[in-house]
Amino acid sequence: MTTPQEELLPGTRRALLHRIAVAQAEGRAPSMVAAVVRGGETVWHGSRTSVDGHGPDENVQYRIGSITKTFTAVLVMRLRDEGALDLGDPLEKYLPGTGAGEATIAQLLAHTAGLAAESPAPWWERTPGVLRPGLGDVLGEQPLVHPVGRRFHYSNPGFTLLGALVEELRGAPWEEVLRREVLEPLGLDRTSGRPQAPHAGGWAVHPWADVMLPEPAEDLGRMAPAGQLWSTTGDLARFAVFLAQGDPRVLSAESLLEMRTPAAPPEAPDVADGYAYGLGLEVRRQGERLLVGHSGSLPGFLACLTMSVEDDVAAVVLANCTSGPLLATAAADLVRIVAEAEPRIPEPWRPMREVDQAVLELAGQWYWGTYGFALRLTADGLVSLEPLSGKGRRSRFKANGDGSWTGLEGYYAGELLKAVRRPDGTVSHLDLGSFVFTRQPYGEEASVPGGVDPDGWRGIG
Q1: 232-268 per-residue burial string, b: 16 or more CB within 10 A, e: under 16
Q2: Which of 29, 45, 108, 437 would you label with 412, given CA atoms 20 to 30 Å apart?
């Protein structure tokens, strides 16, 4: 349900329209359509077009290219959550004989499987999928161009293999499974494998003249799980809400967080650009803002979905041209405009309903050697450990029910935190993955590895 655009301030709405107007004009796009989501609802929609008196709305389909990969990744994660597969399983376990079976499912999702970026000639995006009827036709005689698991190398054939995996385990075509398990539950009625009216036509714009050439819209066949889908800003706005919040009918918030977490070692230029890849999702750093989503392109179309989970703002931008406008930049700017002009209003602070006194006594200042940390209890039942300097290793920890906690992020993700108590029940120190945290720097009362000099702290004398 689209909320009234008046929910955004007039100045914000004008700034959003100005941004896509600049993108459409400078990028020379035949048309461009965009939407902004805040608080789980679409709060703005805008479009620009070269056709007088006509502007695409949130129901006009555009081809979304590689945003399709995120949909395919959701299907794979559903299979994982059901126990039908493990992300560490080699592909060979389910699809033997591909020549790429050494790669794991996680490596395929993260583009670290060593596969080629494209299928063998002719160029798959501009030729019929019937030219590549089998997986061997998609992979070619030498599927691997890098050692498996060694580097990030974006691969379209890799997601063809994931689509084939879905078909093998579900016993049904990829698109049928997608519609039944994702599109219908989320109400994405205007997302489909083939274009459905009203839809935009795809165009190539001459790089040195203001003239256009129609692009073919081929059925990609086996390559469909990598880039086949057509969708709308309305549907993709709803999909963005799902990617941020989860939906128990499709995929949990925890599994989506896993998808949004970088999983591939970035190349050196990617580090400089602030780019990483998760499991079917791109992660970008724009200034101080972390953006997650996916871009897409096929001849005649460009697409981008991006969101800042922290700001609770997402943007979708679609255009019907092969090249020109930088949609990832435009979409990031739409998020920034709303986040800065109308920052998210935090929920009211509320105290905890109840507290375990044995945990409460752990709150406060601790030292790992001479490094100061603060341990805090939060209303969501977690504990956090943060450096007093504001910089350094930090993590939240969830309770295990036995007096210990497991790290959720950063250096301490998966590591065990526990309070070590003396025979009389008082706390001696904290143990975090063998690190000893004491109430005072190198506290003598605790079992500090290597011991503490018996003469204690001293000056120069």
Answers
A1: bbbbbbbbbbbbbebeeebbeeebbbbbbebbbebee
A2: 108
